Amino acid sequence: MLERGSAWLTDAYGEDCVLLQSTAYGEQLVLLAGNRNPGTEAFGSLEVFVLEEAEGGFTLLASKAGDMGISAGFSAAVLSTDSMTVLFGDLTDSIFDFVNGQRLPADFTQVTVELRDGSTLDLTLTSAEDYVFPLEPGLDIADVVFHGGQLTVRYSDFFGQDLMEDSAPDATARLSIFFPPHPARDAEEKIFYFLNKGIDRKACPWYYIKADIKFVASHAGVVQW
Q1: Considering its fold, how many domains does the chain have in total?
Q2: Rounded to 5°, angle at Cα 58 from 53 and 63
Q3: 204 CB contacts (<8 Å, ≥6 apart)?
């Protein structure tokens, strides 16, 4: 399922949306990707996707974009859905000490999630560059604490926004992608099935693939080019 999820991301969003991590949560697949800035290799933002297997492909249940922690040296964002709470972000090898105006080396290995009810969750980082943790649904995250060596950093010390304030999924269509067995995948008979009909092309992240995509009115909202 993870390998097919990676293929789904490339087919749906193109090569500038790069898979960073993937994990399964129950029957659903969670992908963390970096979105490249146009014409560069550098990422301008992160995005997390929650997928569900459908016959012949996947259905996109929810997605959420998050900022990169460029100046601070780390970031955190939350996606809340009916089936899970996803904490995700990026990491670098240093953080900025705003008090003394200098960068401090960082090598975070652990994360403590502090919930609004006073309880905590301890999580282990598996990458020095990014992270994604699908957690149980309905969590109300108050703060996130990063630990590494002698360094401990709180999200709230660097960012003023409440993590839960913008945790709803981004506006997106529920999408299933199916590929006919013939002809080859790159042929123009490829078809996208939108489970929502009447969607504005510009509201869909795939619109750039072809400028002349035609929306066909039907109960499922079949789209083809």
Answers
A1: 1
A2: 105
A3: 172, 173, 175, 194
